[in-house]
Amino acid sequence: MESAPTDLPGADVVVLRWGQAARSVPLARRELRRTLERWEWGAVEDAASLVLSELLTNAVRHGRVPGRDIETHFVRVPGGLRIEVHDASERRPLMALPVAGADGGWGLPLVDTLAEKWGVDDRYGPGKLVWAELAVGREAF
């Protein structure tokens, strides 16, 4: 982790900055688990960890811009959790089912299965943000 969380205990948003390295993915999952524990949302931990892993791995692999970090946002929204991954690359991910036996390309189909909804948006400054929302508890989106 490149910087400490910007949230306070009980806050509705946790923003973290990560280097463009594969080692950032397990560190980010750990911070997500800590956040979900603080929010008492352990029931969504497995799905949220997978979604974060896929989105952040895509940013590390395909969103590299020299000198720029990747940022994650964990946000409490009505009905659940929103995970955002911000990077400085203009290259937008495309979801397509990979051919049978492919080693890669399964990330966004997995996100599509686990999340209530997901998408890609512009962000302030260069690049994009890729987001996914997961239902928590009985409420749905």
The multimeric state of the shown protein is single chain
- Relative helix content: 25-40%
Q: H/E element string?
A: EHHEEHEE
- Molecular shape: globular
Cα radius of gyration in angstroms = 14 Å
How many H/I helical runs?
3
Structural class: alpha+beta
Largest sheet: 5 strands, antiparallel
Task: List strands and helices in order, with pairings.
Blueprint: E1 13-18, H1 24-38, H2 45-62, E2 70-77, E3 80-87, H3 107-114, E4 117-122, E5 128-135
Antiparallel strand pairs: 1-2, 2-3, 3-5, 4-5
What does this structure look like?
With 141 residues, this protein is α+β, with helices and mostly antiparallel strands. Helix content is 29%, strand content 26%. The chain has a five-stranded antiparallel sheet with strand order 1-2-3-5-4, with helices on one face. The termini are far apart. Mean pLDDT is 85; it is low at 1-8.
